[in-house]
Structure prediction request, 602 residues.
Amino acid sequence: MKLTILGCHSGTPLVNANPSAQVLDIQNRLFLIDCGEGTQLQLRKNKIKFARIKHIFISHLHGDHFFGLPGLISTFRLLGRNTELHIYGPKGIKEAVLLLLKLGNSYTNFPLLFHELEHTTPALIFEDEKITVTTIPLNHRIYTNGFLFKEKEGERILNIEAARKHEIETCYFQNIKKGMDVTNKKGVVIKNESVSFPPHHPKSYAYCSDTEFYPEIVSQIKNSTVLYHESTFLEAHKHLCKKTKHSTARQAAQIASQAQVETLILGHFSTRYGDVKQFEKEAQEVFKNVLLAKEGKEFIF
Amino acid sequence: MKLTILGCHSGTPLVNANPSAQVLDIQNRLFLIDCGEGTQLQLRKNKIKFARIKHIFISHLHGDHFFGLPGLISTFRLLGRNTELHIYGPKGIKEAVLLLLKLGNSYTNFPLLFHELEHTTPALIFEDEKITVTTIPLNHRIYTNGFLFKEKEGERILNIEAARKHEIETCYFQNIKKGMDVTNKKGVVIKNESVSFPPHHPKSYAYCSDTEFYPEIVSQIKNSTVLYHESTFLEAHKHLCKKTKHSTARQAAQIASQAQVETLILGHFSTRYGDVKQFEKEAQEVFKNVLLAKEGKEFIF
Prediction:
């Protein structure tokens, strides 16, 4: 599971402070999460192949999370894309994107499929044989979802020594991985548990931005491998959180702690802060395993 | 008259190849012309004060000329702007911008005034005591205007020596500058021409992008101080001009030559060309005084 940060700042873009966008590479699928202005340039800078992006998830329709989307779609069109592109985002996103394409007489030649979201409880919005994606309803100024990316539980792991000891023929090994009991050469039924180990623990990634402090999400993101939680402000500016519906670094850490995630990544920093080191320090008073997002940074879990 | 190039490339943004945007500083007024994705960052890089921008002119609604506008407006809002912003562009621009602001629940606190254009002949769209701006109807795949920025003819210049010789009192000097005849101390009427010089020649700037080769514009832009004309392609790729409705460097030079402008600036280069020096060479075979646009470059006339 690899996460590449394309932008992790709030509000207005500055040089080296890009608005929200990131790419999650999980089980060889590439998901683009949020798409602030300039995302297509950030994708190029980070050498991410445009053709690999088939699913884009937009948390909410504030400009710093979505004004890069029309340009990215236009670029896909200019590059001659012909494969499907799926866009998941709040209701209204389809009207907005299609209006812009219509005004430019630039409808895409490739299938552009919108999945508009209105759920106010967690909803499964993507599933294939290896991955699920579920919305995480957040509490922001406008309708906003985080997204929980989860590997499905994989196959059980064959205990080859035990299988041989039980004289099981190799043609049954596949069934063992699938969790089935099998019959050995002597016609004896061998319990699956005695010839296999449990599957690897599935990894999960919870993206939570933008939101005010919102412990309602804790049960859903419990034990996630990684939580990316917005921390627009430090506690020194906590008074700004109420009106803007954002969180502090400390509040993000409280969510991480309550949800007992393995790792917390902080991002969506207000550009008022020159140095974000203080965010790490503040969060670590509550939750130890804290990392800071940074444009161009890759995290591997 | 100062022109700052923020972006002068066509199609998809690349590092160091920004889509169309430029700032014209004329008679102490600042006009933003086109606003491709990333324009707000280019404004910052070029240290142009956001508050000085009161009028934005959008040639057409292809993404590389206008996808930076919603983000720029949002940034103006976040910065607490309270002065009027006037936007001139093709019909549909208002609906698009307002829909994006509505979806983000981010209507501006400052007056946002749209001047939607549908004229197919040159139309005066801006006028104050020093400047006029007129549309230049172009020939592109969608409805497109260039813009002709023109200084008004200034006051006549007082010939102070002649005025003294004719014994004219200083309280009449203002009338002389306004072109009036005046009466001297002896009660004799003195003709304006004998105590003043003609005003400075007014400067003008014609922005023509995007368009195919379109000599219909020549009469309107005749004798302009500066013509910025798109040259997406070189003659080697002239066959692409017909379908895309763009021009070559040579064609841009032909327009400049026919219009007898003083200086031609080439821009809107396709990103297929690594080195744009060839554009200058090609154009100079037809018209001598050619300059090449470049991100961050300032031209003073």
Q: What stands out?
A: Chain B touches chain A through 36 residues (CB under 8 Å).
